[in-house]
Request: fold
Amino acid sequence: LFLSLGSRIPQAVVSTQSTGVIEIENGVAVVKNARLDSGSREVLRHPELAEGVKLLKLRDHFIFTIESTGAVDPLELLREAVKVLKGKCEVYRKELDVLT
Reply:
């Protein structure tokens, strides 16, 4: 989310986003914590705001959470998941080598 509204209507922009995503500094709306964004496109419903807002997705940036019931430590779950992902990538890499 990139804002170029300057001092125009900053509170209106803040109200269209999840709490904590956008804050007002010196009368200007600025992105404070993009991780709190839920992917809302509400700001685009307002023509006076949409012209000053650009929503983008970074294709190589992922945010995820790990939930555990406590039986397994979340960090250990992450380590195991990465091992599985690496194994799957290796399988696909070998398949691609066969095709080329």
The radius of gyration is 20 Å. Confidence is low (pLDDT under 50) at residues 1-7.
